[in-house]
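Please fill in the sequence for the structure shown.

STRUCTURE ENCODING:
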């Protein structure tokens, strides 16, 4: 197909320093010749450019050959010398070839003569994406001038980053080319030589040469369009001058796009006067039905929060075909989405991207070390807006539980993150997001917004650090009398940000004096609790107290702030009334109480008055109780008592931590009481299941659907006969299929129950489907099937058969990756890792020889077979194996030694808690009113 190549001319300049039209280099259209937080962490370590000069504007001209995916270009960078210097450093990726360089300057502030500064040489740093210009003479401080580069490079085609080209096919199977940019976080240097740091904010002017039948969009509207001599099918679009902005917010799209509906005109009393347009390929536009209304609603909420106008006349939102970015390209004035993201029903991502127009573009992080702060604040605001619009339906209303609980689990480990930098950055961001929520509660929404508006007003067109945000909030809180004078929000925030830990607050009431003694320490679930310097870790935290003698969940003013190891709360209620500290999870910490207060809470929750406690707080009380018990801080009898009210509870938020508890404790307790625990789960869930199964309806209520699905799943896990029978009935359809390897005709929800409680014949059928799995099908389906084959059975014979086939017989249909997967799945329940242990012990010599040269498999097998035991009999098994084969473990010697140390700790936990759990289960099962007559025979 003979199409014209698109030439993109991006002209970035500041007023007074642009080349006049008659001095501009001629350009032509050449015809065809036939980001994330992990990145931010790495960027924070990056060496900064020398500060000898700073940019004040750019003129960038790009000439891309779209079909050949390459481009030529020229950039003029307006600069000011900050010091006397004979060198200039700029960012430039190694795959950009600089072909010409020129430096010009006015050598004094009153000079009108532009001097060409001779260049000694231009070199590329071998290790860093930096070009170094060495001049023949020194340019004095305060001089102004230009740096000109001519260059060439290749467009990105494998990924949609930097300056990229991608293609898609229309409904008529005509191939279309799309050109675009995604310059976050530091991809501008991969498109042209520049000062690619967020602190350099300069105005831009942009000119784009495009095919006449395509659309070019950038940060600002087109000022004028003009024809090109000898190129009848192409035009020049000259865009308006932008406000000052960082290089990573520069955006460009050239594609066959159609505007969806009419433009949205948004104007408010705060000074916003902006036109918002939504774009997509012509075939996709109909999928954007309702999006304009959604955009208008979200933009209004974001703009109303900040009440600082965007200095933009237009905002374009694009559903770009075949855009593969992990997140949208949130350029200032031009947001590029995946088509699937923009056509979704949710509000959260749209709220995030529109928030970035203020926080990230209008004001920008001073350096990448502040990127997580920027993301955290945007994330918090987006969640608040999504809840305001539709109660967070896309998150099933579970925020902040969605992030809070995972934060508790990660930070309660002895070694959080396991050296995974990306996870560390994400959890740090999540914690700060929750801190913003905490301050919004404790200083009040009005004061919080006042502080944030003051912050963004003071930093617009500039960059910011964390101190700018905390100080602005602190000033607003002090002015409104929302914090004591001896409390500083920056100090409070720092006490949380600087630690990869969370506290547990313990409140012990003295009912004779109506006081409560409050202490704090590091929250640890994982044993042993021997974290170095844990006694020195202290947090500044608000103590919000609700009390049942005047129960209210409207005023969240802290009763006090804990800053030291202990604190006394005065004027507490009498012994007939409970207190709740940290309601609504205002701050990210669990709370423990004395036994009497826990009893008061349990009794109240079992009464009809429990609805006076909001659902998030009811969920918090449950979650705190069983996690504290798991950590050894509370009796499991008390934790299980806190679940008694669940027979009347129907809110999905409150059930959420119960399902987590069932999963965690079910994996943790010994086989000796597993049947009793399963009976407890069945009696706990059966009333809820029976009620919901009678009222199954497809009304679009995802929360109800999710609760029903979880209830059914967990009943299946504990051998609820109606569930197992339904699964087996569905599974038989697959077994009777004429060509069962062509595909799985049943839902995945039915597979695990059948493999766990079903017959050997059914499990064997599943095994054959893995062995015969055709390469034409998705490998993810095979992986799921293998996971369930290994991880679900309670029958040791099934597990033994799988191990014999995959390891001893060496069936060629199973790879080493499969073995790792099998070992991992077997650690999920006692039948799995116990069977693996005996398999290893009984076949020691064969396995030792088989994996003598494959230490990765050997080490993994030793870990999976020995590390999960939690009782004294299990410890004895591992100890005997260690004694019998001492010196034979090779690379896994340290692994089994570590397993023994950990098992000793877990054994102590089991000896202390299993009798308590068993006694409580016996008592509960003997007096429960729910009949447990639907258990399948194992």
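FILLED IN BY: designer on duty
SEQUENCE:
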């Amino acid at each position: 197909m003979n199409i014209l190549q698109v030439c993109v001319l991006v002209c970035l300049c500041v007023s007074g320093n642009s080349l006049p039209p008659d001095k501009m280099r001629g350009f032509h259209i050449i015809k065809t010749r036939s980001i994330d937080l992990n990145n931010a962490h790495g960027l924070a370590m990056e060496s900064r450019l020398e500060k000898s000069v700073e940019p004040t504007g750019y003129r960038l001209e790009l000439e891309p050959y779209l079909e050949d995916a390459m481009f030529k270009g020229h950039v003029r960078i307006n600069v000011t010398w900050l010091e006397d210097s004979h060198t200039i450093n700029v960012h430039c990726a190694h795959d950009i070839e600089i072909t010409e360089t020129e430096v010009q300057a006015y050598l004094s502030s009153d000079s009108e003569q532009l001097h060409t500064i001779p260049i000694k040489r231009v070199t590329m740093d071998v290790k860093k994406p930096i070009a170094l210009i060495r001049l023949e003479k020194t340019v004095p401080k305060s001089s102004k001038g230009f740096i000109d580069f001519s260059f060439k490079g290749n467009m990105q085609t494998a990924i949609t980053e930097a300056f990229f080209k991608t293609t898609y096919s229309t409904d008529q199977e005509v191939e279309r080319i799309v050109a675009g940019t995604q310059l976050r976080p530091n991809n501008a240097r991969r498109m042209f030589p520049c000062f690619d740091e967020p602190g350099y904010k300069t105005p831009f002017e942009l000119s784009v040469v495009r095919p006449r039948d395509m659309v070019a969009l950038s940060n600002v509207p087109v000022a004028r369009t003009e024809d090109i001599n000898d190129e009848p099918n192409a035009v020049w679009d000259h865009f308006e001058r932008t406000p000052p902005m960082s290089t990573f917010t520069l955006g460009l799209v050239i594609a066959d796009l159609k505007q969806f509906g009419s433009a949205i005109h948004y104007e408010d009393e705060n000074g916003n006067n902006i036109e918002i347009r939504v774009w997509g390929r012509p075939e996709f536009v109909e999928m954007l039905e309702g999006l304009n209304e959604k955009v208008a609603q979200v933009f209004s909420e974001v703009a109303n929060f900040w009440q600082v106008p965007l200095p933009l006349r237009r905002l374009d939102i694009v559903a770009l075909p075949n855009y593969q970015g992990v997140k949208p390209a949130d350029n200032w004035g031009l947001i590029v989405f995946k088509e699937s993201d923009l056509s979704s029903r949710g509000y959260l991502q749209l709220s995030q991207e529109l928030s970035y127009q203020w926080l990230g573009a209008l004001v920008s992080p001073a350096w990448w070390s502040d990127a997580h702060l920027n993301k955290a604040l945007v994330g918090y605001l987006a969640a608040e807006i999504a809840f305001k619009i539709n109660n967070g339906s896309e998150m099933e209303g579970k925020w902040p539980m969605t992030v809070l609980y995972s934060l508790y689990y990660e930070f309660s480990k002895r070694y959080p993150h396991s050296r995974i930098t990306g996870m560390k950055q994400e959890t740090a961001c999540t914690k700060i997001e929750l801190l913003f929520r905490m301050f919004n509660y404790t200083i009040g929404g009005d004061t919080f917004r006042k502080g944030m508006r003051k912050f963004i007003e003071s930093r617009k067109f500039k960059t910011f650090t964390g101190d700018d945000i905390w100080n602005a909030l602190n000033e607003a809180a002090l002015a409104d009398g929302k914090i004591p004078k001896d409390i500083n929000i920056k100090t409070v925030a720092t006490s949380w940000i600087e630690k990869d830990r969370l506290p547990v607050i313990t409140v012990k009431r003295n009912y004779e004096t109506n006081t409560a003694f409050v202490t704090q320490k590091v929250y640890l679930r994982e044993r042993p609790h021997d974290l170095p310097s844990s006694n020195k870790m202290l947090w500044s935290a608000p103590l919000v107290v609700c009390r049942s003698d005047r129960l209210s969940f409207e005023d969240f003013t802290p009763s006090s702030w804990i800053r030291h190891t202990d604190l006394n709360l005065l004027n507490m209620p009498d012994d007939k009334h409970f207190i709740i500290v940290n309601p609504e999870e205002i701050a990210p910490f669990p709370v423990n109480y004395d036994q009497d207060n826990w009893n008061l809470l349990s009794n109240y929750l079992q009464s009809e008055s429990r609805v006076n406690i909001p659902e998030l707080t009811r969920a918090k009380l449950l979650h705190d109780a069983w996690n504290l018990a798991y950590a050894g801080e509370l009796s499991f009898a008390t934790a299980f008592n806190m679940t008694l009210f669940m027979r009347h509870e129907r809110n999905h938020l409150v059930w959420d931590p119960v399902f987590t508890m069932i999963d965690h404790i079910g994996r943790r307790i010994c086989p000796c009481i597993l049947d009793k625990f399963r009976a407890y789960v069945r009696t706990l869930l059966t009333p809820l299941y029976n009620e919901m199964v009678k009222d199954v309806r497809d009304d679009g209520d995802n929360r109800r659907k999710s609760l029903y699905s979880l209830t059914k799943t967990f009943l299946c896990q504990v051998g609820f006969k109606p569930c197992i029978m339904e699964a087996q009935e569905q599974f038989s359809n697959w077994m009777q299929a004429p060509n069962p390897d062509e595909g799985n005709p049943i839902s995945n929800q039915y597979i695990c129950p059948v493999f766990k409680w079903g017959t050997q014949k059914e499990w064997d059928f599943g095994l054959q489907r893995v062995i015969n799995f055709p390469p034409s099908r998705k490998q993810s389906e095979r992986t799921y099937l293998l996971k369930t084959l290994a991880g679900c059975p309670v029958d040791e014979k099934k597990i033994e058969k799988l191990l014999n086939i995959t390891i001893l017989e060496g069936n060629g249909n199973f790879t080493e990756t499969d073995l790792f997967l099998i070992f991992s799945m077997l650690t999920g329940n006692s039948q799995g890792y116990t069977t693996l242990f005996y398999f290893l012990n009984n076949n020691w010599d064969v396995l030792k020889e088989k994996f003598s040269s494959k230490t990765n498999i050997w080490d993994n097998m030793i870990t999976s077979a020995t590390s999960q035991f939690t009782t004294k009999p299990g410890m004895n098994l591992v100890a005997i194996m260690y004694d019998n084969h001492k010196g034979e473990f090779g690379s896994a010697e340290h692994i089994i030694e570590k397993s023994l140390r950990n098992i000793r700790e877990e054994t102590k936990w089991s000896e202390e808690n299993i009798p308590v759990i068993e006694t409580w289960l016996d008592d509960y099962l003997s007096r429960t009113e729910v009949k447990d007559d639907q258990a399948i025979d194992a």
